[in-house]
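Consider the tokenized backbone below.
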């Protein structure tokens, strides 16, 4: 039987103790779509509200009126829900277990300690003039201070914008300006895989860019003690500001629809978009998905191996687990350092029960052979999770067999920055698993498949994935640009949310995500717009034109393949290829570095001048036999040249 047809039935022993078993899933799912108000009203009781909402759902996906509100007259504080309300019952329980890049470095922070530190930091932010509704940019390593900073903002009603620490100064500057942050929180350096990354230097460089003079203060966590420049009057050591503050900082009640954070992500066109997530619906959704999809039980150690710079880190390192009073493990390093067995060693060291990681991390380990897991037992594991991209059946199998000792169900969770939390996913006690399949919708989620004209496809079908109605965790808008929000997600097909993903539904009604159908790349689970990379390249003096596509890559899932047309007076050379790779790396960040550059004397264009990416994707994938109709090209000759000089992988 092929791997794709293999089914891993629910483990009945696990189901007996699970929050959600088969019957409960059926019953709750039905209720959640037939009576969303009733369902979410009941669920909302799991949060602590300073003013209980009376209105539950008030949402419209109509393209002339996209307006999404949940619990709109409710008031709560997110940090109170993640900290204060746990103090009586679990004040001395670890909230965060921090595992450093160096295996000899770890720290345990209890709920009481976290509460104190967050309160002090919140007071510190106030002393710098930060108040309700102000934005704060975080450019941080994976250290507990990152979670503290997020929660401190939430405590005073400020809005955080976390920028992934791998982004360049320019990328950081763009996000600081767009969000108009008056305060930036960073560290001297981050440490990953034994190497330092100069975060503070990057902030210094970013803050020389136009428009960044809005920033008044930079708070610097001392992580490595490495050399940094100091800007008197602007820069402050984190500890100097925080240590002297009172541990008493009342949590500011905010409206359920007040913004909690902005998170920038790439789209198919233009600059990254700042998705706006709000407080009540987001927190409820993050908490409920965390508890049910990972079947989290009191006292378990849960580890999401993502970075807080991505939505996965927001919802499943910080907000979901802490709202549930869980112990969340935060890992500073990389899975392959100092040895390839690090993941297993961490699992054993902290007795991790739930491990949530990405297909690209699994593939990176697989390449080194099964023996790399020999120095760990991993018998504390109960549940595994995957996120970020479709997981190929070989990686699924390795994760299941080698990491999970063939004992632990894998929840393959499909979702997006925009969705706030899991959307299509198995639940360990309820769903039979199929390797590579995200299976069934979460409560309240109504997926549908449509063809390119927007016609609904029924039964087993392949199409574009849309969501028919709102769920509480959904982003409400794009920061400063609601029109773009409407345009991007609600104008392709009227009245529904368009995900940008292709998807197949099989005979059992299970959903298989097939990947992006727009010009968005997914490289090692990191999302990137082809347009961003193209505009970086054409800013180089030698480049006339550039087209970027993804191609299948064994470890990264997708690699970045670039076609470059040079200016007439420029000679192509290998040195220039290296220079262009470095150029993009420096401009956007290491994750955007092209894998392959091919010189293109011309690009295949229609007579109206549109680049035919379909053809470029085929050539990059080395599928030159199926190029389809090229007769509409202005100059079909260019295709011959591109095929002849394509990069062929061995
Ligand atoms: O294409 C889908 C893919 O990642 C995209 C969302 O990327 P981002 O907003 O960065 O969020 C990643 C973490 C939630 C989706 O449009 N994707 C994410 N998870 C899966 C996936 N594709 C297939 N299977 C998944 N489990």
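A designed sequence for it:
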């Amino acid at each position: 039987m092929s791997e794709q047809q293999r089914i891993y039935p629910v483990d009945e022993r696990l189901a007996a103790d699970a929050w959600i078993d088969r019957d409960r899933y059926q019953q709750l799912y039905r209720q959640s779509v037939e009576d969303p108000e009733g369902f979410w009203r009941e669920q909302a009781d799991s949060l602590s509200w300073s003013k209980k909402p009376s209105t539950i759902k008030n949402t419209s996906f109509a393209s002339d009126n996209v307006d999404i509100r949940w619990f709109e007259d409710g008031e709560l504080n997110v940090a109170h829900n993640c900290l204060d309300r746990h103090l009586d019952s679990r004040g001395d329980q670890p909230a965060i277990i921090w595992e450093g890049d160096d295996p000899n470095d770890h720290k345990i922070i209890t709920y009481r300690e976290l509460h104190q530190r967050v309160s002090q930091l919140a007071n510190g932010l106030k002393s710098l003039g930060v108040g309700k509704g102000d934005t704060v940019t975080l450019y941080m390593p994976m250290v507990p201070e990152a979670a503290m900073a997020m929660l401190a903002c939430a405590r005073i009603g400020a809005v955080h914008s976390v920028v992934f620490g791998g982004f360049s100064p320019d990328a950081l500057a763009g996000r600081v300006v767009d969000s108009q942050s008056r305060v930036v929180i960073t560290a001297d350096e981050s440490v990953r895989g034994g190497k330092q990354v100069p975060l503070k230097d990057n902030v210094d460089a970013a803050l020389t860019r136009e428009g960044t003079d809005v920033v008044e203060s930079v708070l610097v966590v001392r992580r490595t003690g490495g050399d940094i420049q100091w800007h008197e009057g602007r820069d402050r050591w984190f500890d100097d500001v925080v240590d002297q503050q009172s541990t008493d900082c009342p949590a500011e009640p905010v409206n359920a629809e007040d913004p909690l954070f902005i998170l920038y992500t790439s789209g198919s066109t233009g600059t990254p978009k700042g998705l706006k997530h709000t407080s009540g619906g987001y927190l409820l959704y993050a908490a409920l998905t965390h508890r049910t999809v990972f079947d989290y039980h009191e006292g378990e150690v849960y580890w999401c191996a993502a970075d807080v710079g991505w939505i996965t880190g927001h919802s499943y390192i910080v907000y979901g687990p802490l709202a549930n009073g869980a112990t969340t493990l935060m890992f500073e390093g990389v899975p392959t350092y100092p040895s390839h067995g690090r993941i297993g060693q961490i699992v054993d060291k902290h007795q991790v029960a739930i491990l949530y990681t990405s297909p690209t991390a699994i593939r990176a380990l697989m390449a080194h052979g099964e023996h790399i897991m020999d120095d760990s037992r991993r018998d504390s594991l109960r549940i595994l999770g995957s996120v970020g991209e479709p997981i190929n059946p070989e990686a699924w199998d390795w994760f299941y067999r080698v990491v999970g000792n063939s004992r632990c169900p894998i929840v393959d969770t499909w979702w997006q920055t925009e969705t706030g939390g899991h959307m299509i996913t198995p639940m360990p006690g309820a769903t039979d698993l199929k390797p590579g399949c995200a299976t069934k919708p979460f409560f309240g989620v109504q997926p549908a498949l449509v063809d390119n004209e927007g016609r609904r496809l029924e039964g087993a079908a392949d199409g574009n994935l849309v969501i028919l109605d709102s769920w509480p965790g959904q982003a409400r808008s794009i920061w400063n640009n609601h029109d773009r929000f409407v345009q991007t997600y609600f104008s392709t097909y009227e009245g529904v949310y368009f995900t940008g993903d292709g998807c197949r539904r099989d005979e059992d009604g299970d959903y298989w995500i097939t990947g992006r159908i727009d010009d968005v790349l997914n490289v090692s689970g990191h999302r990137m717009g082809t347009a961003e990379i193209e505009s970086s390249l054409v800013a180089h003096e030698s480049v006339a034109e550039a087209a970027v596509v993804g191609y299948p890559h064994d470890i990264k899932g997708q690699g970045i393949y670039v076609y470059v047309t040079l200016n007439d007076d420029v000679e192509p050379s290998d040195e220039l290829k290296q220079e262009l790779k470095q150029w993009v790396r420096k401009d956007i960040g290491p994750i955007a570095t092209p894998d392959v550059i091919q010189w293109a004397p011309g690009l295949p264009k229609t007579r109206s001048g549109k680049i035919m990416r379909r053809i470029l994707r085929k050539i990059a994938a080395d599928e030159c036999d199926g190029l389809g109709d090229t007769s509409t090209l202005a100059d079909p000759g260019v295709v011959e040249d591109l095929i002849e000089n394509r990069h062929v992988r061995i």
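The chain has a mean pLDDT of 96.
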